[in-house]
Specification:
With 34 residues, this protein is an all-alpha fold. The chain has one domain. It has one helix and no strands. The protein starts with 16 loop residues before the first helix and ends with a helix.
């Protein structure tokens, strides 16, 4: 069972800028198909 979710949007723990960019673009592509 998941007890917590950790958000690191400012890149302190993990530099995930590229991941965020790719996921947002993918989500926007999915939305624009409708």
């Amino acid at each position: 069972m998941i007890k917590a979710i950790l958000y690191d949007l400012d890149g302190v723990l993990v530099d995930a800028t590229e991941w965020h960019y790719e996921s947002l673009n993918e989500a926007l592509r999915e939305i624009s198909r409708f």
